[in-house]
């Protein structure tokens, strides 16, 4: 597609977006970081890095952008269902990884925010579908009833479908001051992370492995490097792709992301057996009841903790060439193994 044709597609989609979804024309202009959120203790440098402040500030920016991203128009029920799950809270880890990666590579929050929102839309889709009776059959997510328990299975499926489709449109329509070729790279990376080459492929092997004895560690790694890790990797790489980073930088960030992706899942498995529903905001112990292979079931709790720590250490080592610019991503890696939810 030539540049003029691509620009016409963006303009036409933008017009449709304003008419049908009620979004403002210049939404991206409101994604610039407010002055009161720029604090010395969240700037990488010699001073101690304050991760809670860094995460909290960017989480607030993401929440505000997500709130504006979808309006309730006719047919109201589908938009209400989409917003119900999209705005239900959570760590917003994937959007924050995208923003941090973009900033590390010389980009801005403004240029990355549409992609950050799209990543959360895709993640939310995966949660809605994962909670369905045909999948993990869960009643609670982020401390609230799951989407299908509120709106029914039919609406929940459609809400997930709508969020997935809208995510790609959102990137193309709302990203400003980024060359079209880079947007195509981001869309391709995200598509690859969601398809049978990523999230869907991991989910299929996960379903096929339920109840099986003697699952190999290679199979478990395949499940989670695809079901969980692929979208985390896309989150990190998309931020860098928006800046036009070269292959060497992309490779370093890819290695970082793959390591934290598996570490994230190991900790998830540990929390499933060591935490309560109130702590997690979702049903605890469901993997054991579903007879799913997990890292603790293969390695035990202590070895799982050791492996998670090893992966994070290796992830941080991949960022060493970036120096102080990588402090936020390094701190996020530490957060992944220290988290309790």
From the N-terminal CA to the C-terminal CA, the straight-line distance is 44 Å
Helical proportion, percent range: 55-70%
Radius of gyration: 20 Å
> At the fourth CATH level, what is the homologous superfamily?
Farnesyl Diphosphate Synthase
What do you see in this structure?
Keywords: Isoprene biosynthesis, Magnesium, Metal-binding, Transferase. It catalyses: isopentenyl diphosphate + dimethylallyl diphosphate = (2E)-geranyl diphosphate + diphosphate. It comes from Scytonema sp. PCC 10023. Its EC number is 2.5.1.1. It holds the Pfam family polyprenyl_synt. The chain is mostly helical. The protein has one domain: Farnesyl Diphosphate Synthase (Orthogonal Bundle), CATH 1.10.600. The chain is built from 17 helices and two strands. The chain has a two-stranded antiparallel sheet with strand order 1-2. Strand 1 and strand 2 form a beta hairpin. The chain is globular and about 50 Å long. It starts with a helix and ends with a helix.
Sum up the structure in keywords:
341 residues; mainly alpha; Farnesyl Diphosphate Synthase; two-stranded antiparallel ribbon; 17 helices
Summarize the structure.
By secondary structure, the protein is mainly alpha-helical. It is 68% helix and 1% strand.
């Amino acid at each position: 597609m030539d540049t003029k044709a691509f620009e016409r597609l963006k303009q036409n989609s933008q017009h449709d977006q304003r008419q049908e979804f009620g979004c403002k024309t210049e939404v991206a202009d409101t994604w610039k970081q407010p002055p009161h959120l720029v604090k010395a203790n969240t700037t990488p440098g010699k001073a101690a890095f304050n991760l809670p402040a860094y995460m909290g500030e960017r989480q607030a920016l993401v929440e505000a952008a997500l709130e504006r991203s979808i309006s309730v128009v006719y047919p109201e029920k589908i938009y209400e269902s989409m917003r119900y799950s999209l705005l239900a809270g959570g760590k917003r880890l994937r959007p924050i990884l995208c923003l941090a990666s973009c900033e590390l590579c010389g980009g801005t929050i403004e240029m990355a925010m549409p992609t950050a929102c799209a990543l959360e839309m895709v993640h939310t889709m995966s949660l809605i579908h994962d909670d369905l009776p045909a999948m993990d059959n869960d009643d609670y997510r982020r401390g609230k009833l799951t989407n299908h328990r509120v709106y029914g299975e039919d609406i929940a499926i459609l809400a997930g479908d709508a969020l997935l489709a809208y995510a790609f449109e959102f990137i193309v329509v709302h990203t400003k001051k980024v060359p079209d070729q880079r947007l195509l790279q981001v869309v391709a990376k995200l598509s690859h992370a969601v398809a049978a080459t990523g999230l869907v492929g991991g989910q299929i092997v996960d379903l096929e492995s339920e109840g099986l004895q003697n699952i190999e560690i290679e199979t478990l790694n395949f499940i989670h490097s695809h079901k969980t890790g692929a979208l985390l990797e896309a989150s990190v790489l998309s931020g860098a792709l928006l800046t036009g980073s070269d292959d060497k930088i992309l490779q370093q960030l890819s290695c970082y992301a793959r390591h934290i992706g598996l570490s994230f899942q190991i900790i998830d498995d540990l929390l499933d057996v060591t935490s309560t529903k109130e702590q997690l905001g979702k049903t605890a112990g469901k993997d054991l009841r579903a007879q799913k292979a997990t890292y603790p079931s293969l390695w035990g709790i202590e070895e799982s903790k050791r492996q998670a720590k090893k992966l994070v250490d290796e992830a941080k080592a991949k960022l060493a060439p970036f120096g102080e610019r990588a402090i936020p991503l390094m701190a996020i890696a530490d957060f992944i193994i220290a988290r309790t939810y």
